[in-house]
Backbone:
């Protein structure tokens, strides 16, 4: 999980402050020392850490904090504000052309994930009502063109290609002409990368930029490379001039130093973050929400957005009706489970809940495989058994367990969970009153 180590250390430092009624200057300095060490261990740039801690100290030892009734909360508030500022302050949106098409040029080193992120960005923009065109501008890497075409097919997004015999500049120019005639309002150009920054690569990228004048140049960097990602961002910006960064693999980076350093070092914002391998795992970067998550305050806004994007309002009303009529079935149970899973990995979803710390998530042991077993068991039942689980006797349980590759104990556990969930949801539905139940109650306890 992103920032896991940093979040845990910062929250431990704040816990010590909360245990004190009134703070002395030494209390604050001790906490800041822990914060400094936590940031350095998270691979945050040394100069960035030094400036960050200095700003907090100047604000935290002031009269307003030391005389406050809740000084620990004041310090946390200051850290939250400074952390948000460090990552850019507010969400940085894409700049769209007044006259379409908007041209977005994707750049980065080989292996950073430019091609995949190009597809993910196209999917995201398509959801926003845009008509993107993907452009296969990487003529050097074997199968790069084919990879983009496969992504385009999966996303139902057109891909413009001229093979690998034309120059990237000619391909980019032809793609924009094609977009004008085909009605595509966004052109996303996947460019070639190298294993390291070299003059030839930069000259080619400069030539593309000079000829097509992109509205956005987005650099794709791998969060797992830590400070190397920051150095790459700095070098690309100095040589080419970038408008923003897409930071990939943030879900797998327990340190997160790159996310906290890039804006401060380069002055260029992180615009999107990759939070997984799925094609929908690209999210706009919200500095305030990320700071809140790092400090254990959750991220309710993102959680709500994910729920609204994945939970069907009409189906929620149908579910309420079924609950009131006692017609909630295992098919409904499965559908609710799949809707929650569509929101993303469960540890990420639970990490957005305020008050649920990273340490708490460790103890929670979220087991995605258990959900796979539940799915397999339900799929092994007959339609009649799903509608009326009470008819599932011993022989049926043996057949279901054999068909799903699970044990009879697993089948028994699911049936027990289903009864408990059905009872709980019926009670909550009655408490909320007719028309107010939203059908969003967790069932995986």
Residues:
């Amino acid at each position: 999980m992103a920032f896991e180590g940093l979040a845990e250390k910062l929250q431990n430092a704040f816990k010590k402050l909360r245990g004190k009624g009134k703070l002395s200057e030494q209390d604050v300095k001790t906490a800041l020392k822990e914060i400094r060490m936590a940031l350095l261990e998270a691979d945050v740039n040394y100069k960035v850490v030094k400036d960050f801690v200095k700003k907090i100290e100047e604000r935290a030892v002031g009269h307003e904090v030391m005389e406050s009734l809740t000084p620990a909360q004041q310090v946390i508030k200051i850290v939250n504000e400074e952390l948000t500022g460090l990552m850019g302050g507010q969400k940085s949106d894409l700049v769209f052309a007044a006259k379409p098409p908007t041209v977005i040029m994707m750049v980065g080193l080989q292996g950073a994930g430019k091609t995949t992120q190009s597809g993910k960005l196209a999917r995201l923009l398509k959801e926003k009502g845009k008509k993107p065109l993907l452009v296969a501008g990487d003529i050097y890497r074997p199968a790069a063109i084919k990879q983009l075409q496969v992504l385009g097919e999966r996303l139902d997004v057109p891909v413009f290609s001229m093979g690998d015999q034309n120059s990237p500049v000619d391909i980019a120019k032809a793609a924009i002409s094609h977009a004008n005639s085909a009605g595509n309002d966004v052109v996303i150009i996947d460019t070639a990368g190298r294993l390291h920054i070299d003059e030839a690569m930069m000259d080619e990228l400069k030539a593309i930029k000079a000829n097509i004048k992109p509205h956005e140049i987005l650099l794709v960097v791998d969060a797992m490379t830590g400070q190397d990602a920051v150095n790459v961002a700095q070098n690309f910006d100095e040589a080419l001039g970038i408008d923003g960064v897409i930071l990939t693999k943030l879900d797998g980076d327990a340190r997160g130093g790159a996310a906290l350093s890039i804006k401060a070092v380069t002055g260029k914002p992180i615009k999107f973050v990759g939070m997984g391998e799925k094609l929908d795992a690209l999210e706009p970067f919200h500095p305030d929400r990320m700071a809140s998550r790092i400090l254990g305050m959750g991220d309710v806004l993102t959680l709500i957005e994910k729920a609204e994007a994945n939970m069907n309002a009409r189906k929620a009303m149908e579910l309420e009706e079924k609950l009131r009529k006692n017609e909630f079935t295992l098919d409904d149970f499965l559908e609710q489970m799949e809707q929650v899973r569509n929101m993303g990995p469960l540890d990420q979803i639970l990490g957005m809940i305020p008050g649920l710390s990273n340490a708490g998530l460790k103890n929670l042991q979220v087991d995605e495989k258990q959900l796979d077993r539940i799915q397999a068991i339900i799929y092994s039942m007959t339609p009649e058994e799903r509608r009326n689980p009470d008819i599932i006797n011993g022989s049926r349980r043996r057949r279901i367990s054999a068909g799903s590759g699970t044990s009879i104990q697993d089948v028994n556990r699911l049936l027990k969970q289903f009864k408990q969930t059905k009872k709980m949801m019926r009670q909550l539905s009655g408490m909320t009153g007719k028309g107010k139940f939203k059908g969003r109650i967790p069932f995986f306890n």
User: Anything to note?
Assistant: The longest strand covers residues 216-222.
